[in-house]
């Protein structure tokens, strides 16, 4: 597969530091398009097992040894240790000049790779805008995933774009100075949606607890129960509506300006869980701002919650 400007990297010897959820998923995706993962690092038992299962023909070596073998070096380490790993590789002079060094951190651009850039490496930030759970679905989702890329020049962007297109992803550019805001936006969508949905599931479980159908309890604390089946279609429809219709997707008592219903919701949730009520209040305030809700709603949301 070629990029729009015709650039396509040769088949590359790929090294991965480390064999976590993201690194091994990308490794499998790259091997499917004929790159070869020649080595990876894996320190924990879980990462060694993951490497064995996903990349069975790949040597498990130290980070320095991985770097020495790689033409494309993927740094798929947690954000908190990325800078340290880069410094250690640079101190060991383990990365050959001309090596493409790409990290998968969302919050960082190419600045964090400066010690290796100074040694003649090609720095790239290639971040998959996707959540990774460690299941095989991670790999299958990559072809439909967008990747935020940052590079030092047009050659770097061409390389990053080509690598993403090859595995079926969609590349888009993120400015170096916008990486933190970019990452915050993704965390807000990917993490807080989960929190809101799980809070809603817990509230619905409490509302339905003890009900029976054909002699069987229909509510349980196990995922996949009635509460999830009720919330699932609603939440999926709301997400699709938001992405397709924008502001017009807002519905419910806050958007309608029904202050009495909002007050009733807050009281019911406070009885079930005061923390949940405060989360509902916070999200409702933001919804009220978006919907330009009337003053009556804003007044209800401004009232102090129970202590």
Task: Explain briefly what this protein structure is.
By secondary structure, the protein is of the alpha/beta class. The strands form two sheets. An eight-stranded mixed β-sheet has the order 3-2-1-4-5-6-7-8, sandwiched between helices. A two-stranded antiparallel ribbon has the order 9-10. It has 13 helices and ten strands.
Layout of secondary structure:
Elements lengths: L12 E5 L3 H12 L3 E6 L3 H10 L4 E2 L2 H7 L2 E4 L3 H14 L7 E4 L10 H4 L4 E7 L8 H5 L4 E6 L2 H13 L3 E4 L5 H30 L3 E2 L2 E2 L8 H20 L7 H4 L2 H14 L1 H18 L3 H8 L5
Parallel strand pairs: 1-2, 1-4, 2-3, 4-5, 5-6, 7-8
Antiparallel strand pairs: 6-7, 9-10
What's the alpha carbon Rg, rounded to whole Å? 24 Å
The CATH architecture category of the largest domain equals 3-Layer(aba) Sandwich
Mean pLDDT: 92
Largest β sheet strand count, sense and barrel closure:
8 strands, mixed
Number of domains: 2
Task: List the keywords.
307 residues, alpha/beta, Rossmann fold, eight-stranded mixed β-sheet, two-stranded antiparallel sheet, 10 strands, elongated
